[in-house]
Amino acid sequence: MAVSSKQAYACVVLVVLCIAARTAAAWGRIDDRLEVNWGHGSHGTVSADGQVVSLSLDRNSGSGFRSKDTYLYARIDLQIKLAPGNSAGTVTTCYFLSEGSWANHDEIDLEFLGNSTGEPYTLHTNVYINGTGSKEQQFHLWFDPAADFHTYSIVWTPLHILVLVDGTPIRELRNHADKGVAYPSWQRMRLYGSLWNAEDWATQGGRVKTDWSLAPFVAQYRNFTATTSSPGAGGGYYDQEMDATAQQAMKWARDTHMVYNYCADSARFPYGSPPECYMP
Question: Which of 111, 119, 172, 276 is catalytic?
Answer without folding.
Answer: 111
